């Protein structure tokens, strides 16, 4: 015991941070093990090694698929898109689970819900959007997956994952939400949406919203917009469009068709509206922000105002100076159709804005100076 005590205090002086209880146990264990005969020690070692091997064998046989169904589902629901893609490359069983629409619906709504509308989904499912042959489509999926995963993992790592995933027999359905998400995320899918203050806020488009085809750029987290040609004007392209200037189409109406208004009888002074307007018959409609004003015969007194009972409705566009010809117009709520001329343009359908978020977005885009 004197030797044990001497060695113990010698080690303690060398490292004061080492736990005293652990040091005592180590020294005592070494001391008592030295008293065991060699032939018994060999038996003990064999017993311990066999136990370790059994534990390793049991651990090696376990996998994530051995988890209860509910536990595995909870794990997959909490994975971000890139991690779901990585998990899908592990095996066939996980691939089938990870491509489920219910897992991707949440990710689609969180990132793309504000800019993807009915027209975009229809465009994705349209045969024109998937006219390439299956081989090209398969190759495109691999490239798209690589670009998505490159945002989070080193290229050498995830390229091998994608290659392994491509060797599996099960393929990703073209009409799945996962396929649509990856196509959006990598910019392969040009989807229809609307852009506020098009062409970098050109003065001729202030407080308007026009249809365009958009492609996402994951490197800059912005979009490229293509505005359709009209008349003699070619396609206009705008780069680096931020998320804040995009929205999904609020109505399922072509920009070349008149929107059939359903709220004309509700319009009262002070209501916020959007109205279709185009320069001439060859142009597509854009949506322009305005408010409902009072008739000339009304002094604006709430107690005596009867503007809401009149067939005539005054629309004001206060972003323009009082003397501007674009400052206001009047429409007939009972027999409303496209009205206007080649000088002042043509006014179309009207939307009453009931969503405070929509109204707030327009106010944030208000020009710093009044327009002529």
Provide the low-confidence segments as ranges. 1-33, 131-135, 141-170
Structural class of the helices, strands and pairings?
A: alpha+beta
Tell me the total number of β-strands.
11
Q: What percent of residues adopt helix (DSSP H or I)?
A: 25-40%
Give the overall form: elongated
Total helices: the number is: 13
Overview in brief:
The chain has 372 residues and is an alpha+beta fold. It has helices at 2-14, 20-34, 38-61, 69-77, 81-88, 92-98, 101-112, 118-125, 134-149, 155-166, 177-185, 198-201, 356-364, and strands at residues 191-196, 208-217, 222-227, 236-241, 246-247, 272-278, 286-293, 312-316, 328-332, 339-341, 345-352.
Q: Which short descriptors sum up this protein?
A:
alpha+beta, 11-stranded antiparallel beta sheet, 372 residues, 11 strands
Question: Could you describe the 3D structure shown?
Answer:
By secondary structure, this protein is an alpha+beta fold. The protein has helices spanning 2-14, 20-34, 38-61, 69-77, 81-88, 92-98, 101-112, 118-125, 134-149, 155-166, 177-185, 198-201, 356-364, and strands at 191-196, 208-217, 222-227, 236-241, 246-247, 272-278, 286-293, 312-316, 328-332, 339-341, 345-352. Strands 1, 2, 3, 4, 5, 6, 7, 8, 9, 10 and 11 form an 11-stranded antiparallel sheet that branches. Strand 2 and strand 3 form a beta hairpin. The longest helix has 24 residues, at 38-61. Residues 1-33, 131-135 and 141-170 have low confidence and may be disordered.
């Amino acid at each position: 015991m004197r030797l044990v005590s001497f060695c113990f205090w010698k080690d303690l002086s060398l490292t004061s941070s080492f736990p005293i209880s652990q040091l005592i146990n180590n020294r005592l264990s070494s001391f008592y093990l030295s008293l065991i005969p060699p032939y018994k020690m060999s038996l003990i070692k064999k017993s311990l090694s066999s136990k370790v091997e059994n534990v390793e064998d049991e651990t090696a046989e376990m996998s994530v698929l051995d988890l209860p169904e509910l536990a595995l589902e909870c794990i997959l629901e909490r994975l971000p898109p890139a991690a779901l893609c990585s998990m899908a490359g592990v095996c066939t069983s996980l691939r089938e689970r990870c491509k489920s629409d219910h897992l991707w619906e949440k990710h689609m709504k969180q990132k793309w819900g504000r800019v993807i509308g009915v027209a975009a989904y229809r465009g994705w499912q349209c045969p024109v959007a998937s006219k390439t042959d299956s081989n090209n489509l398969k190759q495109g999926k691999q490239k798209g997956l690589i670009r998505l995963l490159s945002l989070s993992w080193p290229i050498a790592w995830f390229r091998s994952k994608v290659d392994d995933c491509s060797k599996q027999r099960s393929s990703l359905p073209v009409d799945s939400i996962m396929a649509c998400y990856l196509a959006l995320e990598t910019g392969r899918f040009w989807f229809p949406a609307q852009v506020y203050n098009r062409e970098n806020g050109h003065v001729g488009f202030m407080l308007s919203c026009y249809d365009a085809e958009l492609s996402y750029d994951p490197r800059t987290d912005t979009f490229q917009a293509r505005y359709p040609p009209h008349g003699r004007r070619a396609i206009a392209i705008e780069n680096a469009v931020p998320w804040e200037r995009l929205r999904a189409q609020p109505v399922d109406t072509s920009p070349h068709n008149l929107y059939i208004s359903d709220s004309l009888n509700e319009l009262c002074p002070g209501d916020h509206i959007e109205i279709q307007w185009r320069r001439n018959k060859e142009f597509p409609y854009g949506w322009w922000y305005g408010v409902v004003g009072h008739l000339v015969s009304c002094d604006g007194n709430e107690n005596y105002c009867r503007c809401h009972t009149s067939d005539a409705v005054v629309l004001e566009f206060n972003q323009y100076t009082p003397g501007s010809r674009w400052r206001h117009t009047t429409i007939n709520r009972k027999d409303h159709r496209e009205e206007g001329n080649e000088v002042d343009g043509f006014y179309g359908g009207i939307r009453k804005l009931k969503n405070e978020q929509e109204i707030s977005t327009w106010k944030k885009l208000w020009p710093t100076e009044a327009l002529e």
